Amino acid sequence: MSTPRFFSTPFRYLHWASIEKPAIFYSILVGSLGPVMLVAVPPIRHRLGDVDPEPIPMTYPIPSGPRRIPVGYDDPE
Predict the structure, then answer these.
(1) Contacts of 76 (CB under 8 A, 6+ apart)
(2) pLDDT of 33-57, one tens digit each?
(3) Number of alpha helices (DSSP H) and beta strands (DSSP E) in the chain
(4) Confidence (pLDDT) at 57
(5) What is the DSSP letter of 68?
(6) Cβ contacts of residue 45 below 8 Å, gap of 6+?
(7) pLDDT at position 71
(8) pTM, 2 dp
(9) d(Cα 6, Cα 63) in Å, to the nearest integer?
(10) Residue 4: is its pLDDT beyond 70?
(11) What CA–CA distance (Å, rounded) separates 32 from 35?
(12) Which sign does the torsion angle of CA 14, 16, 18, 24 carry?
């Protein structure tokens, strides 16, 4: 049983695949960059001065003091 072409000469196989099956080759290439960017991009962003935004509030802030009831918006009697 012969070994598959990929494991015997990987760079030659990748060159062949980029020419003969470019859609599959480049989709795998671009798809494999996702996890790499997940690890690499945040430190680069922070080094360039980009800061994370404040987290959005999850509750409505309760005002301090008594509630002022609006006047003049009642229905006519």
Answers:
(1) none
(2) 999 999 999 999 999 999 989 999 8
(3) 3, 0
(4) 86
(5) P
(6) none
(7) 84
(8) 0.51
(9) 67
(10) no
(11) 6
(12) negative
According to the model, what pLDDT value does residue 55 have?
92
Tokens of 27: 């989709």
Q: Are 25 and 17 in contact (CB under 8 A)?
A: yes
Structure tokens at 17: 């695949």
Please tell me the distance from the alpha carbon of residue 10 to that of residue 3, in angstroms, as a whole number. Answer: 12
CB neighbours (10 Å) of residue 27? 11
Residue pair 18/26 in contact (Cβ under 8 Å)? The answer is yes
Residue whose tokens read 């080759």:
25
- pLDDT band for position 69 (cuts 50, 70, 90): confident
Place of tokens 């072409």: 5
Distance, in Å, from the CA atom of 75 to the CA atom of 16, rounded to the nearest integer, reads 80
